[in-house]
Write a structure and sequence with these properties.
Shape: globular
Largest sheet: 5 strands, mixed
Number of strands: 14
Bound molecules: acetyl coenzyme *A
Structural class: alpha/beta
Distance between the termini: 29 Å
CATH architecture of the largest domain: 3-Layer(aba) Sandwich
Helix content: 25-40%
CATH superfamily of the largest domain: Thiolase/Chalcone synthase
Number of helices: 13
Number of domains: 2
Radius of gyration: 20 Å
Strand content: 15-25%
Strand order of the largest sheet: 1-7-6-4-5
Oligomer: single chain
């Protein structure tokens, strides 16, 4: 039986939750293990602190904790969830992804669990997937999780961790400092976290729910942000030579990513609004990916949006990749910036290149 678009249910966000690990790392702690300064990090990125997990705590662990918080916030019974979508670029294992691991940690019965990996745009892709699952009638109650443990990608050895946390006195030997400093433009930007939302099919004709999305991908831009090693393009997928040369660590041309983010995030936000017959004037809140405060300030200026229509929290958490959009939305909502009925755009750009914007009336 075909359904007219007007009669399709919308995906209404019922609840949102987050999980931030307990180890708070400020810029001066990173300066103990690499050639960087608090001043450089603040000026170039806006970041002041980020949070790290204890060793052994995985993306699925953080994701499950955020999911529990989102389920509690939504007031639904966890058993009602009939689909899980999980975005992460740092899954617990090469395979399987984190979706079923979260299902198992939550003690849920058998259900479809889909893993998506669009890096910093992962949660935006997840929102579109949730919208499609609910509109099509495939699912009625969907859990969307974004979780990333970037400390697992940090190429620093045990002695560096001891010095970073102040358990051992520095300085580190020059060769270790030099090795760590090779990755300073990346390491200082990232933190660990998870965020989750519960969506339910909403049949009322009140305009609430996910309204639409515009997403893009462009493999021609792969080289500006990717991990050269640790994949099927290599045989074996990872070996000591790759580890020794740093090829299992992301490569990033920060300036190129910056330039693309400041132009494409505003453009795609305006595009999704226009596609839904709306304008920037109608927007109550813009939640952007948090990769660099300067990127978001430039994007805000390009859209001429007032400060109360934008929320940034990169200062506290750094870039938490798939967790960023729900973590930022959660805080904005706590501050009263996203009351019921408000129009929110979720906009992101990241490795792939993937970018896009999703519109939701909360
Ligand atoms: N501390 C001190 N100095 C540093 C550091 C550091 N942590 N990192 C780099 N530098 C140095 C560089 O070596 C360079 O030195 P040089 O002039 O002697 O050569 C100088 O600072 C300037 O380096 P740039 O890379 O040109 O600095 P820039 O102002 O571009 O800032 C940054 C770098 C913060 C990475 C910025 O380019 C950025 O944020 N880009 C976007 C990142 C992003 O959006 N990533 C996408 C999301 S991630 C995802 O999808 C997984």
């Amino acid at each position: 039986m075909s359904q007219s678009r007007a009669s399709m249910p919308r995906a209404l966000m019922m609840g949102c939750g987050t999980e931030v690990p307990s180890i708070r790392v400020d810029n001066s702690m990173l300066a103990r293990i690499m050639d960087t300064t608090d001043e450089w990090i603040r000026e170039r990125s806006g970041i002041e602190t980020r949070y790290y997990v204890e060793p052994g705590v995985s993306s699925a662990d953080l994701g499950a904790a955020a999911a529990r918080a989102a389920i509690a916030d939504s007031g639904i019974d966890a058993e009602e969830i009939d689909y899980i979508v999980c975005a992460t670029m740092t899954p617990d294992h090469y395979f399987p992804g984190a979706g079923t691991l979260i299902q198992e940690r939550l003690g849920l019965g058998k259900l479809p669990a889909l893993d998506i990996r669009q890096q910093c745009a992962g949660y935006a892709y997840g929102l579109q997937t949730v919208d499609a699952l609910i509109r099509s009638g495939i699912a009625r109650t969907v859990l969307l999780v974004g979780c990333d443990v970037h400390t697992s990608l940090m190429p620093v050895g045990p002695e560096s961790w001891e010095v970073l946390y102040g358990r051992e006195e520095g300085p580190l030997p020059p060769e270790i400092l030099e090795w760590n400093s090779r990755f300073r433009h990346l390491v200082v930007l990232f933190g660990d976290a998870a965020g989750a939302m519960v969506f339910r099919a909403h049949d009322a004709d009140d305009g609430r729910g996910i309204l639409g999305s515009v997403l893009y991908g462009d493999g021609n831009r792969k080289e500006i942000l990717y991990v050269p090693g640790a994949g099927s393009a290599r045989r074996p997928w990872v070996d000591e030579a790759q580890l020794a040369s740093g090829e299992s660590v992301p490569v990033m041309d920060g300036r190129q990513v910056f330039k693309l983010a400041v132009t494409r995030m505003p453009r795609v936000t305006m595009e999704v609004l226009e596609k839904n017959g709306l304008t920037l004037e109608d927007l109550d809140l813009l939640v952007m990916h948090q990769a660099n405060l300067r990127i978001n300030e430039a994007a805000q200026r390009a859209m001429k949006l007032a400060d109360d229509k934008v929320h940034n929290n990169i200062q506290k958490y750094g870039n938490t990749t798939s967790a960023t959009l729900p973590l930022c939305f959660y805080e904005a909502r706590e501050e009263g910036k996203a009351p019921e009925g408000s129009l929110v755009a979720f906009t992101a750009l990241g490795a792939g290149l993937h970018w896009g914007s999703v519109l939701m009336r909360v």
